[in-house]
Design brief:
The chain is an alpha/beta fold and about 230 residues long. The protein contains eight helices and six strands, in the order ααββααβαβαββαα. It has one domain: Uracil-DNA Glycosylase, subunit E, CATH 3.40.470.10. About 40% of the residues lie in helices and about 10% in strands. β5 and β6 form a beta hairpin.
Length: about 230
């Protein structure tokens, strides 16, 4: 029988993509000057959160000096600062920051994952790398039996999610765009919390709060309808 623990173990041990293995390990060995005294994780990064989650957040891939350093999704970089503040404000997280895997952060009702589990050069995984990782996400989503809503951070995550969940027709990606899966789940699109978006104002914290707030509403409404 499959389990989230089994998926985690297989993710962490994966060496399927030579380019990604070489890059993640090179980054971990060379390190950024600000983190030169730290031991980098330097491996694929598993999903993180509450196994009973009603909300899943799907990004792109670990950041070279963020999750590739800390070993936890969206942890130790500016993108994570934005995401976890929003989840904290919405009641999904017990603290507003995520700096290290042992910092005491806990999620309630939420799970965070990505279509690609290794840090890719220039944050651009290839199609083959995406497809090699896809079974991990498929299994994760199948094992999160209470899911009601999925937030796709960026077009990459949205495309992978729509393919896995069978969204047809597929609405064009845009911030706040929603799609319904054949199983009745809602996928909500958001601009990614990358610095490219947050530093330029393309994504504001209010915009992110609106998406997460909408996810809370839909998850609560769906749960109440079943009771």
């Amino acid at each position: 029988m499959d389990s989230l623990e089994a998926v985690t173990a297989e993710v962490v041990a994966c060496r399927a993509c030579p380019r990604l293995v070489e890059w993640r390990e090179q980054v971990a060995a060379e390190r950024k000057a600000a983190y030169r005294d730290e031991v980098y994780w330097g491996r694929p990064v598993p999903g993180f959160g509450d196994p009973d989650a009603t909300l899943a957040v799907i990004g792109l891939a670990p950041a070279a000096h963020g999750a590739n350093r800390t070993g936890r999704m969206f942890t130790g970089d500016r993108s994570g600062e934005w995401l976890y503040r929003a989840l904290y404000r919405a009641g999904y997280a017990n603290r507003a920051e995520s700096v290290a895997a042992d910092d005491g952060l806990r999620l309630t009702g939420a799970w965070i994952t990505a279509p690609v589990r290794c840090a890719p050069p220039a944050n651009k995984p290839t199609i083959d790398e995406r497809e090699a990782c896809r079974p991990f996400l498929e299994r994760e989503l199948a094992l999160l039996g209470n899911l009601r809503v999925l937030v796709a951070l960026g077009q990459f995550g949205y495309q992978v999610l729509a393919g896995i969940l069978g969204v047809r027709p597929r609405p064009k990606f845009g911030h706040g765009v929603e799609a319904i899966t054949p199983a009745g789940l809602t996928v909500i699109c958001s601009y990614h919390v990358s610095q490219q978006n947050t530093f330029t104002g393309r994504l504001t914290e209010a915009m992110l709060d609106d998406v997460v707030g909408r996810a809370v509403h839909l998850a609560d409404s769906s749960t109440a309808a079943e009771d």
